[in-house]
Amino acid sequence: MACLNTLRSVIAGIVFGMAVFSAQAAGNSGLPEILTVNSQQPFDTVIQRLEKSIAEHKMGLVAQASASKGAASKGIKIPGNAVLMVFRPDFAVRMLKASIPAGFEAPLRIYVTENTDGTTSVSYRTPSVIFAPYQNADLDVLARELDPIFAGIVGDAVSGR
Fold first, then answer.
1. Total domain count for the chain?
2. Which domain CATH number covers 15?
3. In a structure prediction context, what are the per-residue pLDDT tens digits for the chain, which is 161 residues long?
4. pTM
5. Which structural domain range is residue 107 located in?
């Protein structure tokens, strides 16, 4: 029974990932505050460039999750799909000083999807959008510092700088 439940979970995750991938590939996330930048580079190259760019912008890659790697471990091939979770300790301290509930938002995420034509899409929500609902002036200041960092991370990775 546990094996059947695991299989159901894997299939549900794959179906969800493919649905999200389809929406991204069509350029319609359904959420206008999500910024998407497309790259002509293949998925694995964009992931490598993002990892490098995160470090160059003095941020930390806190974690990485990949539906496509998870599916591959079960012998299932789906288009490349990964979430990179990014933050830095000094920003975390400032965020939590401003608002303990805002800790829910960290680390901030960058979503990478492989398109059917071999290109890659990189999507993220700006920190200003993420922290706006907290209506906290200190978080707003922090977000305004983080916005150009995330734009730089994504821009440099997509352009190959």
1. 1
2. 3.30.310.70
3. 444 344 343 333 343 344 344 334 434 455 668 999 999 999 999 999 999 999 999 999 999 999 999 999 999 999 999 999 999 999 999 999 999 999 999 999 999 999 999 999 999 999 999 999 999 999 999 999 999 999 999 999 998 77
4. 0.80
5. 2-159
